[in-house]
Specification:
With about 550 residues, the chain is of the alpha/beta class. It has 17 helices and 21 strands. The chain has a seven-stranded parallel beta sheet with strand order 3-4-2-5-6-1-7, sandwiched between helices. Strand 16 and strand 17 form a beta hairpin. Helix 4 packs across helix 5. The longest helix is centred in the first third of the chain and has 15 residues. The relative contact order is 0.08.
């Protein structure tokens, strides 16, 4: 009997674990699952890649399966918050695997996708909802979701969530949750300040710490190379090209501090013949998903990412991690190198340190308690660096970021072919001949000369458009001339009504009694001027009103 069977988990969950090949729990799972099955709040601290997702998913799914209450419209029974889109999608996929034999619905919402599409999925309600804080609040404000039926609240990567400035959104979300709930906090690092802040959201928690805070994985070989900033790119390209060619590096993660720095590294690697892609906040969700899927499949051996994307990358086969730029927050180093040496494998972590980054390395060594092993530059480094090609152009190899595309429009440049699928308008007619009718209604030939085809448009008293041929029509109320055209307004009489021209031929006055003279304020009422203009106002004769037409 396995450990999960001894815990008394539901049979469908045990069947799903057997399908995935899980038999022995990790330390965080062994310590957390019994307390969560008892309904206690939990504050779990474990290094990255130790199975925190299964630690809170298995007991939570067991509880939901044992207490079937049905689904409430636009609501959820379990809420899981994640700081990044990739991590949210990863958690949702894992929970779907664990609940494949249960009648439980798992939904995932995050930014970068149409909010209306996600709102429609939440209309019938769901059992488990994995979300990022921003998109969750968007759905709540649009009244597409309510949190009144939440039984289990999970906050994964709690320290990163609060470091990113999600304290106020988390406070808003916590105030919307029911007081009677089970709350779980999991993170790889948990400083005392953040732990004290987390106590506002959990009640009498059980603290589970399977490893000292901010410790790195044991099977990661950590090296450091001191090099000038301008030489980092050449050293990275040479190291990756050698490692991939020899087979020592199957897939590598390169971490930069900025988004534009990640794109710049990709352009250099692509120019050197290394297939690479970038993932950061300026990429669209489709671009980020495409790059991450290619990295998982192995078609993209090198993925360049920023720290914000480090939490959502879970690829068991990552063999090496390169710190192209050293993080100024020491805890970020733990999350970076935690992407390798997963599932019992060994890993490699290499850090390139510029002179102004030596203080960051000292802080990291003080935090982790590990002295990094120095590594020298290759003997022929200068000769190899001179032979490297120039960086590729933007958009080559890697996806172009939205910010670069928008910058082209802000500068007034037209998009390149491929960015805009619409073809330029042609001045050819239907039969392939140049020329056509302009906005002013006149026809023009290929040279742009105006042509008089003798066709004009008028409107009958029913409001319908019609075409009349001037060559066959006799002189009527409209005189066809070039330039301004005058038109006398003559309305046809209605059925059973006699025309009355006492007010200048205006049919509005037909059938009314003529106003008698001798009014108190004016000798003629206002209705008398509906068809005429008073003398001295541009119509001295007071005759029928005429209007110029172009």
């Amino acid at each position: 009997m396995s450990y999960f069977e001894q815990l008394g988990l539901a049979e469908p969950i045990l069947r799903a674990l057997n399908t995935k090949g899980y038999s022995d729990p990790t330390p965080i799972q062994r310590e957390s699952i019994p307390a969560l099955l008892d309904g206690r709040d939990l504050l779990g601290v474990a290094q990255t890649g130790t199975g925190k997702t299964a630690a809170f998913s298995l007991p939570s799914l067991h509880r939901l399966a044992q207490n079937p209450t049905g689904r409430f419209p636009a609501a959820c029974r379990m809420l899981v918050l994640s700081p990044t889109r990739e991590l949210a999608a990863q958690i949702a996929d894992n929970m779907r695997d664990y609940a494949r034999f249960l009648d439980l619905s798992v939904q995932c919402v995050f930014g970068g996708l149409p909010v209306r599409q996600q709102a429609r999925k939440l209309v019938p309600g769901c059992d488990v909802l994995v979300a990022t804080p921003g998109r969750l609040l968007d759905l709540i404000e649009q009244r597409a979701l309510t949190l009144g039926h939440v039984e289990i609240f999970v906050l994964d990567e709690a320290d990163q969530m609060m470091d990113l400035g999600f304290i106020k959104p988390l406070t808003r979300i916590a105030n919307m949750l029911p007081k009677e709930r089970q709350s779980l906090f999991f993170s790889a690092t948990m400083p005392d300040a953040i732990a004290n802040l987390g106590k506002r959201f959990i009640t009498n928690p059980v603290r589970v710490e399977v490893a000292p805070q901010s410790t790195t994985a044991e099977r990661v070989d950590q090296f450091v190379t001191f090099v000038d900033q301008k030489e980092k790119q050449a050293l990275l390209t040479i190291s990756l090209r050698k490692g991939i060619a020899s087979g020592d590096i199957e897939s590598a993660l390169v971490f930069t501090r900025t988004k534009h720095g990640a794109d710049r590294v990709v352009r250099h690697l692509v120019a050197a013949g290394i297939n690479a892609a970038a993932i950061h906040g300026n990429k669209t969700q489709a671009q980020r998903t495409r790059a991450l899927d290619g990295f998982r499949r192995g078609s993209i051996p090198v993925l360049v990412a920023t720290d914000i994307a480090a939490r959502g990358i879970d690829v068991p086969g990552v063999s090496a991690v390169f710190n192209f730029e050293i993080p100024n927050v020491s805890e970020q180093y733990v999350h970076r190198i935690g992407r390798t040496a997963r599932a019992g494998r060994s890993g490699l972590a290499v850090s390139y340190v510029a002179p102004d980054e030596k203080s960051y390395i000292r802080d990291i060594e003080r935090l982790t308690g590990v002295k990094l092993t120095p590594a020298r530059l290759p003997e022929d480094f200068i000769e190899q660096a001179k032979g490297l090609p120039a960086p590729a152009k933007k958009g080559t190899g890697a996806e172009r970021s939205d910010e670069d595309r928008n910058a082209r429009f802000r500068k007034g440049k037209a998009p390149a072919r491929g960015e805009n699928d619409r073809k330029p308008r042609s001045n050819r007619g239907r039969n392939g001949q140049r020329g056509g009718q302009g906005r002013d209604g006149r026809w023009r030939d290929a040279e742009g000369q105006s042509q008089d085809r003798g066709v004009s448009r008028s409107r009958d008293h029913h409001g319908d458009d019609r075409e009349s041929d001037n060559r066959n029509a006799g002189p009527k109320n409209v005189s066809h001339k070039r330039g301004p055209v005058t038109k006398q307004i003559v309305q046809p009489k209605r059925h059973g009504e006699k025309p009355d021209n006492s007010a200048g031929g205006n049919p509005r006055n037909s059938g009314k009694k003529p106003h008698r003279k001798g009014g108190s304020k004016s000798s003629a009422p206002k209705s008398a001027f509906r068809g005429k203009k008073p003398a001295g106002k541009g119509n001295a004769g007071g005759g029928p009103l005429k209007r110029k037409m172009s």
